[in-house]
């Protein structure tokens, strides 16, 4: 697991500790980059680990940052919760330079966390991890009846959906009428 | 009754129940079912139960957490459609048919996948219709289950096996199946040429690679075989195999004249004369590539005598014979492998 520290996207992070590297370190020193999520905790990740993310890999290739520039400009992912980004960074570190196994059993079992992870991984374009996550979601749905699926995943029935839509339209109509009346009042 | 009402209204009491469920480390949905059994179905919704269960499961037994500030929980339907599609890729068409009944949005996602089954076996017997999907257990089709299956948009199957019991006279199998399918292989067991043709025509010839026909009655009952072989499906398939309740004699080979590669069984009484007749018939086939003839007897002596080959002395059980097709530069390469039964392979060569 990579160690982290508090920081901001604008301020240079003060020496975050490095993620543990494999014993057989390459002769050429590896370059590192910095990322942070919503919580501003900066993660130092090797370029090798970040290769899993097509998005970050593309950013790295285009920017051509030096080590100092990378440290001063961590990649901000404000749409990703800190704990979710931590999971992603851990996964990238664990699978750095390794062929990905056919299954990953260490994914969160809690729906909320899993959904956030799916969305983050999709955004970061980590193909293999996205496949695992989607499989995990599917495994949680499999074997359940339509009623159970609706109950567990809070999915409204078509009738409920239609009623909610009607209600929303009615509310929007009332609000619009209220605004028009207020505007007319102001004009007077 | 009084106790149950108090359980339903007392929040700490409910949370204690959830705590105990979480401590048992059972799968969460099984825990919820057990919880509902104890306190009633309508006492707590699954999402609320799940929230507390996971807190307790992860060692946070704080009962008075204020959830009003928590973000609105996401649901499966909050995932973008592309991701929903990726999730549903992990389901087979039968599992997807359950998802279709969740709601319209889910149905739209599910229907964007082609519903292609690997293998379907449908049997029409005296007891009724039954089916097997992808080698899973046999299911009796009640309340239009099979019809529902065929109504899944984009329904198709790679390997289709149809069995029409000779004692069941109804055409329910024919009536039930969709008008056309594109299987790679079809395996038909039926008792009349009429039924076989009807079932065979369901498979579009363009995609069909292999046909297996099992005649469940004697040739007299089956009727005109030649009609089956007139179908485009037979002419275009890469491989055709015919089996019969009663062994078919050498003259049946004439039916294969437009088939490229085939397999059939000859009767035990096949003689040297029959083998020569088989050679003569096959040599007239224009598009012929290969065939395999099986005889449940050791016919090495008859084979050698028919084609003028030397009967092997030793343990050799394979004999070859090469025959030039009259007025042609093409040959039929025969080989016979014998044990307690014989397999004669014939390949056309130049």
Automatic annotation (TrEMBL), chain A:
Superkingdom per UniProt: Eukaryota
Domain SKP1 component dimerisation, residue spans: 127-170
Stretch forming the signal peptide: none
Domain named SKP1 component POZ: residues: 38-96
InterPro entries: SKP1, SKP1-like, SKP1-like_dim_sf, SKP1/BTB/POZ_sf, Skp1_comp_dimer, Skp1_comp_POZ
GO biological process entries: protein ubiquitination; ubiquitin-dependent protein catabolic process
Comp. bias intervals (Low complexity): 8-25, 178-188
UniProt feature, compositional bias: Basic and acidic residues: 165-177
Keyword Mitochondrion: no
Gene3D superfamilies from the UniProt entry: Potassium Channel Kv1.1, Chain A
Keywords on record: Ubl conjugation pathway
SMART domains for the chain: Skp1
Region annotated Disordered, chain positions: 1-25, 160-188
Pathway: Protein modification; protein ubiquitination
Family under the similarity heading: Belongs to the SKP1 family.
The protein's role, per its UniProt record: Probable essential component of SCF (SKP1-CUL1-F-box protein) E3 ubiquitin-protein ligase complexes, which mediate the ubiquitination and subsequent proteasomal degradation of target proteins. Regulates cell proliferation during embryonic and larval development.
Protein name as catalogued: Skp1-related protein
Species in which this protein is naturally found: Caenorhabditis nigoni
Phylogenetic placement of the source organism: Eukaryota, Metazoa, Ecdysozoa, Nematoda, Chromadorea
From TrEMBL, chain B:
GO BP terms: innate immune response
A Pfam family: F-box
Name of the protein in question: F-box domain-containing protein
Species of origin: Caenorhabditis nigoni
Domain F-box: 73-120
Entries under CDD domains matching the protein: F-box_CeFBXA-like
PROSITE patterns linked to this entry: FBOX (PS50181)
InterPro entries from the UniProt entry: DUF38/FTH_CAE_spp (IPR002900), F-box_dom (IPR001810), FB224 (IPR040161), Mos1_HTH (IPR041426)
């Amino acid at each position: 697991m990579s160690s982290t520290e508090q920081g901001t996207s604008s301020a240079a992070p003060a020496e975050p500790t490095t993620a543990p590297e494999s014993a057989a370190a390459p002769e050429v020193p590896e370059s590192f980059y910095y990322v942070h999520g919503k919580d501003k905790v900066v993660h130092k990740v090797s370029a090798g680990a970040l290769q899993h993310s097509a998005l970050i890999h593309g950013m790295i290739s285009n920017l051509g940052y030096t080590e100092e520039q990378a440290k001063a400009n961590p990649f901000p992912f404000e749409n990703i919760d800190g704990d979710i980004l931590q999971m992603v960074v851990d996964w990238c570190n664990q699978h750095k330079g390794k062929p990905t196994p056919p299954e990953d059993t260490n994914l969160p079992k809690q729906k909320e966390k899993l959904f956030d992870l799916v969305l983050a991984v999709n955004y970061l374009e980590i193909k293999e991890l996205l496949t695992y996550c989607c499989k995990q979601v599917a495994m949680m749905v499999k074997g359940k009846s339509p009623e159970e699926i609706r109950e567990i995943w809070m999915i409204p029935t078509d009738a409920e959906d239609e009623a909610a839509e009607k209600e929303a339209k009615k509310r929007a109509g009332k609000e619009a009428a209220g605004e028009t009346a207020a505007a007319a009042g102001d004009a007077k | 009754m009084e106790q149950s009402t108090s359980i339903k209204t007392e929040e700490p009491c409910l949370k204690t129940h959830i705590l105990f469920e979480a401590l048992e480390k059972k799968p969460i949905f099984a825990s919820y079912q057990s919880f509902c059994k104890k306190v009633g179905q309508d006492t707590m919704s699954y999402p609320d139960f799940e929230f507390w269960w996971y807190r307790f499961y992860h060692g946070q037994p704080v009962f008075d957490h204020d959830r009003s500030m928590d973000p609105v929980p996401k649901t499966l339907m909050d995932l973008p459609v592309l991701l929903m599609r990726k999730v549903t890729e992990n389901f087979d068409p039968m599992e997807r048919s359950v998802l279709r009944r969740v709601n319209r949005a889910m149905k739209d996602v599910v229907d964007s996948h082609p519903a292609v089954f690997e293998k379907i076996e449908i049997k029409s017997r005296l007891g009724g219709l039954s089916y097997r999907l992808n080698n899973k257990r046999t299911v009796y089709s009640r309340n239009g289950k099979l019809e529902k299956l065929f109504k899944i948009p984009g329904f198709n199957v790679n390997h289709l096996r149809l069995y029409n019991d000779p004692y069941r006279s109804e055409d329910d199998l024919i009536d039930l199946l969709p008008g056309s399918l594109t299987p790679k292989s079809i395996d038909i067991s039926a008792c009349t040429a009429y039924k076989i043709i009807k079932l065979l025509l369901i498979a579009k010839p363009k995609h069909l690679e292999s046909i297996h026909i099992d005649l469940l009655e004697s040739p007299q009952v089956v009727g005109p075989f030649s009609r089956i072989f007139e179908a485009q499906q037979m002419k275009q398939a890469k491989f055709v195999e015919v089996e019969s309740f009663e062994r078919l004699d050498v003259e049946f080979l004439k039916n294969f004249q437009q088939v490229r590669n085939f397999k059939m069984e000859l009767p035990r009484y096949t003689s040297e004369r029959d083998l020569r007749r088989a050679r003569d018939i096959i040599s007239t086939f224009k598009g012929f590539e290969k065939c395999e003839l099986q005889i449940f007897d050791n016919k090495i002596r008859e084979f050698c005598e028919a084609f003028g080959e030397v009967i092997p002395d030793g343990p050799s059980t394979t004999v070859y014979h090469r025959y030039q097709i009259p007025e042609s530069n093409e040959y039929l390469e025969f080989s016979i492998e014998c044990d307690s039964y014989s397999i004669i392979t014939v390949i056309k060569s130049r």
